[in-house]
Structure formats: structure tokens, C-alpha cells
Amino acid sequence: MVVPATPADIDAIMACERRPGYEATVGRWSREQHLAGLADPTHRYFVARRPDGAIAGFVMLQDVAIEADSILVRRIAVAEQRRGHGRQLLGHALHVIFDELGAHSARLGVRAHNANGIALYSSLGMREESRREERGHSDEAVSVITMTMSAESYRQSKRSNP
């Protein structure tokens, strides 16, 4: 079950983004940054809850506005990989972006070495739009892929996979 996050979820959100290996793919925010994000009307946070109520992962959207053109999937992280929680979270995020907010497109940045992330995003219909070089967490050069999905592509994928 995916539900809006609350301030009480921040410890679990921070634990997800601090999993080993995620420093190079997900990014990390402080408690204060997450609290500010939760309070910011241009952000939306959602958590996936297991049947026992524990948080299985989260997704954060940015650039949310009443007349949204493109919404950024800023961060997505799960407590355990290969359990379907990332797919569930991104699917919910795309539903919110297109069905609830009426945005024209969704976008995200993924590091080129994050094969699992690229495979997940591609499987849900996101496509590579561009590549750029950035400085990573250790100041090394990192290739980042911008992946996007249009509202039209989203609706087509819903029709072919109801």
C-alpha cells in the first residue's frame, strides 16, 4: 500500500536512502531537508507500507504545481531490492503525476551505472532523453541519464497494460 508520508516516517525514509551502495545512486538528505520537503507544497512524498506497517520504501516528487508541465521524480529508494516495492512506488508516482496532477511529463535523473534503476524505469515506459556529466559524491565525474515519460505515453501504456 502506498500512502502519503508524514514527519513520523522520516527515520524510515532516511534509513532507506542510507542503505549500502545507495550513496552512489540515490542521494541523501538530512532530517531538516526532509522536514522542509514535506512542508513544501511543491514536493510530494509517498511511502510503501508492508502489511505489518513497516516502510518498504519511498518516492519523492518535486516541481509539483497546480499547472504542472513536468514533474521531477527526485528520489526513490527501497529497504530491500527485488521485492516489487520500487515498481509499486514509481507506478504510484506516475499515477499521481499524470492522473491526479495532470502534468504533461515526468522526468528523473539516473546515474548511468545504475542498471537496476534504468531497467525499472524503462519497464514502466520511461525513455532516455539526454546524458550529462556531473560531479559525484567523491567529486568524480559521473554520467547521469535524464529519463522522461509524456502523458500520452503514460495513457498508451495504461491502455495496453490495464
Primary descriptors:
single chain, 162 residues, alpha+beta, Aminopeptidase, seven-stranded mixed β-sheet, globular
Describe, in short, the structure shown.
The protein is an alpha+beta fold and 162 residues long. The protein has helices spanning 10-17, 31-39, 85-100, 115-123, 151-160; strands spanning 2-4, 44-49, 55-62, 70-78, 105-111, 127-135, 141-150. 32% of the residues lie in helices and 32% in strands.
CATH class placement: Alpha Beta
The CATH architecture name reads 3-Layer(aba) Sandwich
In percent, how helical is the residue content?
A: 25-40%
Strand order of the largest sheet: 1-2-3-4-5-7-6
Query: Rough shape?
Result: globular
Determine the number of helices (DSSP H or I, runs of at least 4 residues): 5
- Main beta-sheet strand count, sense and barrel state: 7 strands, mixed
Distance between the termini: 19 Å
Radius of gyration: 15 Å
Q: What is the strand content?
A: 25-35%
- Domain module tally: 1
Average of per-residue pLDDT values: 90
**And the CATH topology?**
Aminopeptidase
CATH superfamily, called what? Gcn5-related N-acetyltransferase (GNAT)
Alpha-beta content class: alpha+beta
Count of β-strands: 7
SSE order = EHHEEEHEHEEH
Low-confidence stretches: none
Walkthrough of the structure:
The structure is a single chain. With 162 residues, the protein is of the alpha+beta class. Helix content is 32%, strand content 32%. It has a single domain (2-160), classed as Aminopeptidase, CATH 3.40.630.30. The chain has helices at residues 10-17, 31-39, 85-100, 115-123, 151-160, and strands at 2-4, 44-49, 55-62, 70-78, 105-111, 127-135, 141-150. It has a seven-stranded mixed beta sheet with strand order 1-2-3-4-5-7-6, with helices on both faces. 28% of the residues are buried.
